[in-house]
Structures are given as C-alpha cells and as structure tokens.
Design a protein that fits this description.
Blueprint (H helix, E strand, L loop, with lengths): L22 H18 L5 H22 L1 H6 L21 H7 L31 H23 L6 E3 L8 H12 L3 E3 L8 H12 L3 E4 L1 H13 L11 E4 L6 H10 L4 E4 L1 E4 L3 E6 L5 E3 L4 E6 L6 E3 L2 E9 L10 E10 L11 E7 L4 E3 L2 E3 L1 H9 L5 E11 L3 E10 L1 H4 L2 H16 L2 E6 L15 H5 E3 L6 H9 L8
Parallel strand pairs: 1-2, 1-3, 3-4, 4-5, 16-19, 17-18
Antiparallel strand pairs: 6-7, 7-8, 9-10, 9-11, 11-12, 12-13, 14-15, 16-17
Helix pairs in contact: 1-5, 5-6, 8-9, 10-12
Length: 489
Amino acid sequence: MSAVAVAARPVVNAVAAEPAGPPALREFWEEYRRTLRAFHDGRMSEADWDRWYGERLTAVLRHVTSRSPFYRRHLAGVDVERVTPATLSTLPFTTKDDLRREMYDVLSGSPAEAAIFYETTGTTGASTPCPRGAKDILTSNSAVEESWRRLFRARFGDRMPVVGLMGPSELYAFGDVFTAVTGALGACHVKIWPESPRVGYRKALRLIEELGIEVLVCAPAMCLSLAKAALHYGYDPARLPVSLFLVLGEVCTPAFAANVSSLWPDAIVRPALYGSQEALCIATGAITGDLHLSKLNYLVELVDPDTGAVLGDEGEGELVLTMLVDGIKPLIRYRTGDLVRITPAPDGAPLPGPVVEVVGRAADRIHLGTAVLQPAELETAVLTGVRGCLGYQIVIDGDAESGDRVTVRMDLLPEVGGDPRAIGAGVAERLRRIAGVDADITVEAELDPVTNTGAFVSWKAARIQDNRSAPDHAALVAREVAHRYAITT
C-alpha cells in the first residue's frame, strides 16, 4: 500500500485555550473551565452540582426572558428567580413546532451576535435557525474534545491519527466542530464527504489509502456504503488503514457495529456524539461504546412520549433538555422527540456523566405484529449475529384481516457471513420471537438506495418500507434524495 508519511503528533492534554473576546466571556470561561476540570476528574460533590445547576438555570432563564421574544411570551408570568431544578417541570415545554413557527424569535440575540450561523436540514419541516455564539462553541466543543482525547489515547496511545471527516459542512456544524476539535488535539484532518461532488467515493478511498487515514467520522450507514464502494473500486477493506469509525446521526446498535467490524476487520465502531443542530452536543462517546451526558450543559428530564408526563431523570422515555449555557439559542424544556435510556455511569467508566442510550425517534416506533418496536429493537433483531451485511431493508405488507407480513432484503457477502439460508433462518426466528410475524429473507446485490439515506432523513425512512399505509413526509423526502446515495457493484 502506498502512503503519504504522516508524522505522529503528541497527545495535547489541555482543555480549550483562552478565548478572545470581552472580559465577561473570559470570566465565564475561566469559571466553566475550572468546573469542567472538576467534572472530568470526578471531584464534583452533590453541593457543587446543586450550586452549578441552580446558578446556571437562573442565569439562562434571565437571559431568555430578557432577550428572546418567544420566551418573553412563552414564560410570561413566571418568576424566573424562584424557578429551581426541582420546580423546572412547572414550566411549559418547548417543541419543534414552536421552533418552526417562531424561527428567529426563539433566539436570545441576533444572528449578527453569533460566531457562526447554521440551520437545520429542513428534511421533516421548515429549516430553523441555529446560530452559535462563542459560549455555545466553547462549552459544547470542550465535551467532544475530552471525549476524543480519551478515545484516541485508548486506541492509539501517545500518537494522533489522521482523521477523515465524512459529513456535510454547509450550514451544518459537522465540519466546524470536528475541525476545531482535531485542531485542539493536534491531529491532522481531511474533509472527504463522499456525497460531495468535489470528492466522491473513488477519491475518498484513494485518500484513505494514501494518507493512512485511521479514523473516519460519519453516519453508521456510511460504514456500509464505503465498504461496498471499496469492493466496487477494487480495494480490500481489510488492507485499508481504517482502525476506528466514529459514528453519529442515527441509530447504531451493537449488532450493527459488530457487522461493520466484519466488513472492516481491523476497525471498531464507537459513537462520536449524540446531539443536534438545535441542542448542540448532548452526549459524547467513550471507548466502551457508551455515550455520556455532557452534564455541565443540560438539565435532563424523561417524559412519556404520548402524554408528556414526567418520568424522572433516569430510566427510559422521551428526552427533554434545558440548556444551561446562556448563548444565542438556549432552549427551555425542549422536547427532542428522541427516545433514550439514561443510567448512572458504571464504576471505572472512561468518561464521567450518566450513560445515554439512544433508542430511536419517538416518531419511528413501529407497530408490527403483536409488538410496538423501537428502531434499535428492530435493527437488533435483524442483525444480531449477522456478518458481511452491506445493507438491509425491512418491507412490511399486510392488513387487518391477513396480519403483517415481513420481507427482509439483505445485501450479503457469503465469504464473510456464511450460508445466506442460515442467516435468513436466524433473522426470521428473531422477528417471530419479538413480534409474532412470519418473515421471508431475500438476498439482493442491489438494494434500494434509500437505505443509505439514514442520517440525512431518518432511520425509519431509510430502513423501513411500510406498504400498509401511504408514505409519510420523511419517507417521501428520503425517496427524493436517494439517488445521491446510490452505491452499486
């Protein structure tokens, strides 16, 4: 393999540098950085957390009610000085519909006061403005920086790998966040999003080989698309230097990660982060595969996705966030629409903060046979024990009289995964066990390209073709853009 020599860089061991800006920003950052170090070192007591949460919540409530036209109306009549973390649930929710209706009125400052302007993709509704100011960037990126520092140390020791960034940058935070983090760590990065017309899969694969790129940051579906493209263009994934996939943007179950490692034998799959344009970096990934809450930046609640009833801050439910940094767009009791499971960090965890397991979007729950399944449950049923799978799609047919019928289309490499008939029998048995449905499995070399669009629209739109009803808006959007993501052999 030909390669460009890349010098090893020492691991930088420091939280983000002193920011340029007014004295108030430097004062805030100094306090935040001290608290961040205490958090990372495990030195925060219950009294410390009570003080931090109380002070930050009051600061943010003052900020939004004085500077955001929406929150001035939304929280009218609320004495923000009397609201505490214990009484936070008395405030009204903020919803995605609020953000789409109010647009710039949600902001606590004008876009001109921000450092960078972003907006949501607009695939499932109107694009909403998501500018970030200096405080937003410093506090959100610092969590990613510490996560990556520990991930890289666990995987690569005292050197820094070359990092390939495979995601969009225009109006989207992906490129800027990871550029800043790799820069802070002293790692070389290269932006090689294959969907870009300036790059494409052939060039991306060439650069992976020539630059010795060991870390790829991308959506889970990209791990499969890249393996398929490698085979198409004559590369052997086992001979490419990729050692670590850092994934984000959609559901990635342990079963999916294990399947990816069967296609990329020298690589492991770990979460990069869980977050959104609106809510920034909510949780960051550890070498164990767990996501840990960025605890300094949020108060979290779990609610029943159907009724909104508060379930506490541990267990399973829809995630509700109150942001604790008084930046350009802090959100109060924001219903994310994401179903998560929150548990305490285990003893000896490589990162502090509760563990956040993303189960899927509330809107992506699937009624199938005798069950209501979360995306993670359905993907686990399909991929548990499966190796050499380059993609899959679940097709649901049926009606009230005949019941649900399932066909699972799979693109399989028999030289990796073994007998497709045995794989199909296992998939059928697991689906029968969790949902009481019969399933047929077909092996197809060319799947519907919509299966590669997950991070752009939604896991459900990419993976499920539900013929029991007309396609929803997300499914139609995924269908419209699917041709951009087609990978053929």
